Amino acid sequence: MTRLEIDAFLSIVKYGSISSAAEKLYVSQPALSRRIKVLEQELGYRLFSRQRGFRGVELTDEGAAFISVAQKWQHLWQEAGAISMLRHNKVLNLSSINSISTFILSPVFRAFLRDNLEYQISFMNYHSAEACRMIESGQLDFAIIGKPRFLKYGEAIPAYSEPMVFASPWEYPETIRVENLDVRKEIKINWNNEFSDWHDRWFDSTIYPRATLDTMAFWKDFLTGDSWALMPYSVAQKVSCQERLYLRRVVNGPPDRIVYYVRGNERKADIIDRFLHYLNIEVSQIEGIKSYLDY
């Protein structure tokens, strides 16, 4: 039983067909089929029913029961792999949500690497849920997240908070009242749970925003004309430097956004503390941000 076989099984379960799983794993369908056949031979029972062809697979009773075993096996493999990283004490494996990496972290990385030549950084963008899973499995040492509810173990620590502001290329009045906003012109990003709860209270759920995004990568394509968005101040400030946007305060607007961080590998406490020091320097310089960091 190998990692490739377990990954093949769980991918087919996740994506519902061997063709979709093969595409996601970047392997051919015959190669993926062979992995499943080898796994079934090792286990001594079938995992998928093939009555209607292998493309439209269905789990057998044994296959359904095997899912939890395969997930445990995969988790143990990840933990085993993380052990090999223990000797790399000079590498900080970290991740961040997209809005922080895009608008906050570049100067933090530059300052950290400039002053700490003995250290290296390995960085990836992950949503909060995925980052929390990787912290818990030991694949990340440190993560900046926006939604702490995904963390099963450990503690999500507040890093800083900032107000949410109205932004638009259209010159709206200086003061915006939320009850006067047309949600059909909104470019919406669900920044965190508090923002989503606030949005649900104020806007009719049967009326859809002009666009709903999960990243800031496409904001230029959508935030045009009289469209508008609600953004954390640090994001709105940087965006308005690239394109002309009018920033406004909102009466009865959403609560301040709180950004959190999660520590993983305590063997790297020193390098994590150093990184937090430079993060604190950067966010403390941004107007409107309240830093909770003391490094």
UniProtKB/TrEMBL annotation:
Q: Which PROSITE patterns match?
A: HTH_LYSR
Q: By its UniProt entry, which InterPro entries does this protein fall under?
A: LysR_HTH_N, LysR_subst-bd, WH-like_DNA-bd_sf, WH_DNA-bd_sf
Q: Which domain of life is it from?
A: Bacteria
* Domain HTH lysR-type positions: 1-60
Q: Which CDD domains match?
A: PBP2_LTTR_substrate (cd05466)
Which keywords are on file for this protein?
DNA-binding, Transcription, Transcription regulation
Q: What are the protein's GO molecular function terms?
A: DNA binding; DNA-binding transcription factor activity
One matching Pfam family is LysR_substrate
Indicate the family of this protein: Belongs to the LysR transcriptional regulatory family.
Output this protein's name.
Answer: LysR family transcriptional regulator
Lineage summary: Bacteria, Bacillati, Bacillota, Clostridia, Eubacteriales
